[in-house]
Amino acid sequence: MGGTITVTGTRRRLRYLVAAFGVLALTVQVALTAQVALTSPEAQASTDLKFWHFNMCGNKCWEDPQNEHNYLPGTDSRGEVTVRAAQIVESISNYGPDIVTLNEVCYSQYRAIRAALIARGYHATYASSGKGTGGACDNYDDSVGRKFGMALFSKQSATREPYDIGTPEHPNRLLCSDTAIGSRAVKACSVHLGAKDKEERALQASKLAAMASEWHKDKPVVLMGDFNAEPTEDVMGKFYDHSGGTGIFHEADESDPAYSEDWPAGAVRGRSGEITFTTDRTDPPTVKKIDYIFLSAADFKAVEGDSLYGGQRRTSDHRVYRGGATWQ
């Protein structure tokens, strides 16, 4: 794991306690326990380019009644389609990212998010993950279009390009788009590597890294998503362009000094970053970084990132992960 949670890291996350989702502009549902000004300096990236990613965990992470924090007060799992979509739209609107990616999104949720973000000027695309529901959707029915998968939103026009990076035994799909950030064309992808089989995940990562290198011959590349591996694992070396990696990317949160304990002496960055995943289904609870915003190192600089902790009223086992950068 990229480092333990320090006091500094904890304070840093607490500044974003509510910025993760914002205060809902709905007349029902919830009253949050704390409020943070969404226009405060802490809620804004200091860089020109902005990125926003979230593994939503569908509209019901699990049915265990002991995990009540997974449901906002006054809602049930079906209600989360509306509630969680509203939270996500507000968080994105407050931050204003150029590229947005979602993992584990039910198609019913995607339709609500798509309608709201298109009204705000975004372009939308979606693809089934190709690997079932993961138990995360209570309204999954592929025959009538209620799919489970991933989404990508861009401020610029965006193509829909799904790629199969799995195998028949372990299907997995990647959603990419030829789009742009400002006036510069980019290839952007919503990534969700396999969670259970390390060998299969390594195979998927190798395919993805090779594809990214080819795309990069023509344009900058952005990979955002849940890679299901921690920064120092061998599989992640296929993406980092430093610290023993053989890839072509910076990672948004690679220079966070609060997570520098594994960096070489004198280093200003490393394969680390803030926690993006938490589950209390283990004892002690599992906390780790497995979500990433990878930006091709030849094209982006001044990278930064923060994961946003939703407290006990979070609605996913992942945290919203935001990044920033400037052009080289």
Defining key terms:
328 residues; alpha+beta; Deoxyribonuclease I, Chain A; 6-stranded mixed sheet; 14 strands; globular
| Strands ordered across the widest β-sheet | 3-4-2-1-14-13
* Estimated structural class: alpha+beta
Low-confidence stretches: 1-45
- CATH fold category name: Deoxyribonuclease I, Chain A
Elements, N to C (H/E): HEHEHEEEEEHEEEEEEE
- Percent helix range: 10-25%
- Mean of residue pLDDT values: 80
The CATH class designation is: Alpha Beta
CATH homologous superfamily caption: Endonuclease/exonuclease/phosphatase
Shape descriptor: globular
What Rg, in angstroms, do the CA atoms define?
Answer: 18 Å
Percentage of β-strand residues: 25-35%
The structural domain count equals: 1
Distance between the termini: 29 Å
Query: How would a crystallographer describe the biggest sheet?
Result: 6 strands, mixed
InterPro entries: Endo/exonu/phosph_ase_sf, Endo/exonuclease/phosphatase, TDP2-like
Protein name: Endonuclease/exonuclease/phosphatase family protein
Cofactor: Mg(2+); Mn(2+)
GO molecular function: endonuclease activity
